[in-house]
Amino acid sequence: MKPFSFAIKARLSSFLAISTLPLLLLLRPSAALVHLRGVSFSFSFLDAPARFAVPVGDRGICGALHIADPIDACSPIGDLNRRASAEPRPQSSFVLIERGVCSFEEKVRNAQKSGFGAVIVYDDQEKSRLYSMIGDPAGIHIHAVFVSKMAGETLKRFAQGEEGECCIGSSMDETAGTVLVISFVSLVVIVSVLAAFLFARNCLLLRQAAQRRPSSMNREAVEVFPCLTFSTSFLNSKCTAETCAICLEDYKDGERLRVLPCHHEFHSACVDSWLTKWGTFCPVCKHDMSSGE
């Protein structure tokens, strides 16, 4: 039993480690909020952070939002609102870029070369889900997120290039909901694995118990038990019952009954067949005849 338990526990530990690894990876923040505010408006949109850019911290970042020129940022980005002086653009400047024509990585690198501190790429098509932008992280030291087409067009329409008007931060509600769902899935997986382990263990115990105990008795051992010839006069003395518990037929005068060690009697033919074919215990009290007691 010990080798079996050890093997099952080892497999259980390995399975839990493998099955929970992707769940732990999912616990990493995978969505945030882009928030645009002004004098008479305020908008919030879900975004998908780029996997190759610098993650946005829990405290979030805020800055002025500019529209890329060209809008796809597949070539060096200019800024019509940028002053002619050579002073660098502050790291709190964000740039809005449309998806398409070139890769996400190229867009982000062009924005970084132009001095922007964060990139917001919006979809060029109406889709029900957000893309997870991928690329080579080498040399990338700015933030980048992806938003829907609707969000991008809204940002483009109301962006004013004013300091602090646009913020990118964590969505606490969504993060909490994600953690709750993942926790529930993890609990279901663990409970299922434990249930499977207990079921397999119980099956093994029952199989081992069945192998240790004989399933029937040989005829020679059964014939050792004494017999008597039934008479109606026995009902008030030796016999405690007037019906065979196996065939449910009343005893008749002259029938041969076999008496088991537990003092229960049955038709000889009925109990002999029972003990040699079905089990080693008394059909009434379940006393095991093979124990020798």
Automatic annotation (TrEMBL):
Any Pfam family matching the protein: PA
Single biological process term from Gene Ontology: protein transport
Coarse class of the protein's main subcellular location: membrane
SUPFAM superfamilies reported for this sequence: PA domain, RING/U-box
Domain RING-type as annotated: residue spans: 244-286
Gene Ontology terms: cellular component: endomembrane system; protein storage vacuole membrane
Cell compartment(s), UniProt: Endomembrane system; Protein storage vacuole membrane
Highest taxon listed in the record's lineage: Eukaryota
GO molecular-function term, one example from the UniProt record: zinc ion binding
UniProt entry keywords in alphabetical sequence: Disulfide bond, Glycoprotein, Membrane, Metal-binding, Protein transport, Signal, Transmembrane, Transmembrane helix, Transport, Vacuole, Zinc, Zinc-finger
InterPro entries: E3_ligase_sorting_rcpt, PA_dom_sf, PA_domain, Znf_RING, Znf_RING/FYVE/PHD, ZNRF4/RNF13/RNF167_PA
Membrane-related topology note: Single-pass type I membrane protein
Transmembrane region(s): 176-200
Protein name: RING-type domain-containing protein
